[in-house]
Amino acid sequence: MVDEDLHSSFRSTAFLSCFLVLFMLVAGCGSMATRNKFYDPITAELHLSEYQSAAEKIEAARSDGKYGKKDRLIYYIDAGLAHHYAGNYDTSVVLLLAAHDAADELFTKSISRAATSILLNDNALEYAGEDYELLYLNLINALNFLALGRFDDAFVEIRRANHKLEMLDNKYAEAAAQMNRGSRDDTAAVALDFEPEKTRFNNDAFARWLSMHMYAAEGKIDDAEIDRIWLARAFQEQPHIYDFELPEVKYRSKEAAVLSVVALTGESPRKEALSLRLRTDKDLNLVQILYTDSEGEESEYGHLPLPVSQDYYFKFAMPKIVTTPSLVSRIRVSVDGESIGDLHLIDDIGKIAEDTFRARKSIIYIRTIMRALFKGLATHKLKKKADTGGLGGWLKKAAIDVGTDLTENADLRSSRLLPGRIYIGDFEIEPGRHNITVDFFDPTGHIIKTETLYDFPVNASGFNLARAVSLN
Amino acid sequence: MKHLILVFLVMLMVAGCGSSKKVTRLDPNTITDVTGKWNDTDSRLVAEEMIADCLSRAWVVDYVQANGSKPVVTVGIIRNKSDEHIDTEIFTKDFERELINSGKIKFVASPDQRDEVREERLEQQEFASRETAKRLREETGADYMLVGGIKSIVDQEGGVKVVSYQTDLELIHIESMEKAWIGTKKIKKDISSGSTKW
């Protein structure tokens, strides 16, 4: 039984010392809670379309130690995206490539530590990125390479994105298997019968739209057509993600040129803490997870059949994905002062974030419960030991409670610079140099932002891609 | 026990401190695999092996016997179709070097180099002396063009990643479009991720 193991462990002074040292280390590194406050001035700059200033503020935050080594992936993504929005494509490429490499390295590490670091607060661990962040860092980097005229490199990013999507199905299988097996070094010494939830997303419409145009630009019409079909299938086969109309796409024109426009809008999906409570039932050998909604109504969030010999009640928190509605409700494209049509939604990143977070969330859920259970039981034993009576005993017990609460925070780290939505449009226009204007409207019909690309070259063939951004 | 804990804490603190940078010069021919990605060693080894194979085939002898001169070759585009950012210019240079140094063929500038040289020649017609200006329409036309690409297949499960690179080259006769040689070279790498800098 979990608490019997603990009891025997606690008889050993060595264990108690180790626990205290570990506790001190966790408490000492100042990594017990996610620090997101520093994003406020950066987000304000993004809303004002002051992207260069946002990039500078990210650098300042790094200099101030807001991005530690364990958060390096978020820094690379944030800085890479800010420089992309600012049009510093070369710099963005370097940073997003660093993000890709860091994600590769950190994912391998996260697998190997799946079972061995249950005791550590997730905030103290190196952040390996969420799948939606890793997917879009490649797709935004593809936009960078296209802006730089480096087609082969843009294709590399598309292939990387598609590879990640293919991997998603089995990505967390090994981590789950490790947790099931338990481990000799498993800090909680609990073996589970656990299967992670599956993601139901494996085909990204925006990635298909980009590669469709890139193939067409190279004259590979068969390949372009295959991507067009895959784009349609993304909508047909994933209605839980693509619950909006399939946009009309066009990759070639017999009589005119095709102008393709992409617009990045809205705020990035974020993580918020979901507060839960854990109750053990020794008669039923059950660990029950309870949730109280905003109206105070209590319901069961989940349960685990796990042998316990005492009844306990602890609180804990885990991350959940939340999305912020975009202010942008319509995007109009004009060429040389004349409206040629609207852009249409192709990727709702919030929906993709929610779905792809599903598999990892189930692993976080199990890890968090195990940690909460272990720490709750350890706290109970420590408090018993500390109960020496009088004010001294009370203070010791209060310190133990505070320490436990402080080290049990949900890991809310994520990039705050991704867009929330991606819109596209393909328009037939006369080849030549044009002034392309993109207007972003709010739901009341007011223009939030206008972006004009002056003297934009539109060739009879090739991928004529214009990009506009309004992160509102 | 107290001593052990103290030593452990000190070790952790020391491990956190930065170490001084050390630079060691390496022979350019040294085989290095730091990140597991496609690198200069892969490029060089693939070029050496594939060009050796290409030039050992019957088409060279056949051409010399039929024409009484060495075949003229140029290198076209080598496309990167892998999932890594590979500088194909370096790769192309490795092929050019191997071809030229073999002595079995004659080699002309690649298509993207010609424009620059042609521009220089055109300027010479106006600005250089009659004796030194190089003549127009005296370029050596290539008989064959070497084209190809590099692809990769990534097989990954959890922390295990194996990347297979395949380089495909084709030598095409420019006039007849006949393919004189096709070569393939595969490289397989088992990659474990290293630590990124911070």
Give structural notes:
The complex is a heterodimer of chains A (472) and B (198). With 472 residues, chain A is an alpha+beta fold. Chain A has one domain (2-470). Helix content of chain A is 45%, strand content 21%. In chain A, helix 1 crosses helix 12 (349-386) and helix 4 runs antiparallel to helix 5. Chain A is elongated, with a radius of gyration of 25 Å. In chain B, 37% of the residues lie in helices and 27% in strands. Chain B has helices spanning 2-16, 40-55, 58-67, 88-102, 111-127, and strands at 72-81, 106-107, 144-157, 160-173, 179-191. Chain B is globular and about 65 Å long. Chain B starts with a helix and ends in a 7-residue tail after the last strand. The interface between A and B is medium-sized, with 31 and 26 residues.
Number of strands of chain B: 5
Order of helices and strands of chain B: HHHEHEHEEE
* Average pLDDT over all residues of chain B: 86
**Could you tell me which chain pair has the largest interface and how many residues each side has?**
A-B, 31 and 26 residues
Rounded to an integer in angstroms, the radius of gyration calculated over CA atoms of chain B is 25 Å
Question: What is the global morphology of chain A?
Answer: elongated
- For the record, what CATH class of chain B applies? Alpha Beta
- Sheet-strand content of chain B, in percent, reads 25-35%
pLDDT below 50 for ≥5 consecutive residues: which ranges of chain A? 5-15, 24-30, 183-191
How many angstroms does the end-to-end distance of chain A come to?
52 Å
